[in-house]
Amino acid sequence: MLNDSIGKGGNMNEGGNRAGRSNRKRFIVLVVVLIAATAVALTVGFVLHYQINDEDGKGEKDVTTSRMGVLVDCLPELRRHEEKMSGKEDECQRRGCLWRKLSDKGAPWCTYPRSSGYILNGAINETSQSYSAELTRSPAALASYQEPVYDLLSVHIEWQTENRVRVKITPKNVQRWELPASILNIESSNGSVNRNTSLYTVTFTDRPWGVAITRKSSGSVIFNSSFPGMLLADLFLQLTTRLPNENVYGFGEHRHESFKHDMNWRLWSMFTRDSGPNSDWNLYGQHPVYMNVEDDGQANMVLLKNTNAMEVLLQPNPDPAITYITIGGVLDFYIFLGSSPSDVVKHYIQ
């Protein structure tokens, strides 16, 4: 009996020990969970803090990050000198722009916030073949350009043929030099085309204002300027458009190493000069037109009808885009659609 009692007592002690160890394990697990939850909360709060500050143009990031979305450079004068970007955070923020040190070589570190650009001012005047509208500079307009900026713009979008649409943006009530029709005459609509018979649709965004041209048959958005940074001043006109993909050809009168363009933040300047082929220099003339071959083999071409000195900056995947900057004239785009590269060229030279 005594031995039985001792044996039973020993079993009771062992059970108590097991219960104690189990409670300690639960306590340790609870502590670990609480520590992990606290760490996650602090991390989320830290990220949100910087996101909020960045959206206001006041945040500063020294940490190298990867880019997200289409970027428009707010310090274009330093574009070719990445080593000079260091220490420019204050200047970037003075312009009301966002500072992010990016890991993508060649990508701008100082970019326009979403609130910059122009917004729709009043109603859109609509006919079966055109849209007309007035734009006003956003209340959140930036001090990114020192010269006076045009506060009011006129926009005219015209269905010219079933394969061609025109997008023209000019300062309102301001006469600007334009290429005369006697030199390059692109005929307007003959009245036989409208939004129902065309191969494309036209849509808008308001904040910031932008226009998108979409191919009806495939849904491919072949021209989309719905991004911040559009700016029209006397000697500085800027607009960015997103592309369907990186298959870009054109911008002739340069010494290109391949027919297909290198989109990795490549900058091409266009200014007529009497010069032979030499590296990236501009040659005898300029031809601000490109072709984009879409994923299904169809193609589009975009011509900027402007003869002033200009440059285009090519932006790579995952958000391929082109930023135009010119020192005069107006922004007068002609967008052509074709079923193939040869077909779109046929429409272009008609």
TrEMBL record:
Segments traversing the membrane: 27-48
Family matches, as SUPFAM superfamilies: Galactose mutarotase-like
Domain Glycoside hydrolase family 31 N-terminal as annotated: residue spans: 157-311
Source taxon at top rank: Eukaryota
Gene3D superfamilies: glycosyl hydrolase (family 31) (2.60.40.1760), Spasmolytic Protein, domain 1 (4.10.110.10)
Keyword Lipid metabolism: no
UniProt keyword annotation of Membrane present: yes
Alphabetically ordered keywords of this record: Disulfide bond, Membrane, Transmembrane, Transmembrane helix
GO biological process, one term: carbohydrate metabolic process
Domain P-type intervals: 88-113
GO molecular function, one term: carbohydrate binding
Record protein name field: P-type domain-containing protein
Native organism taxonomy: Eukaryota, Metazoa, Spiralia, Lophotrochozoa, Mollusca
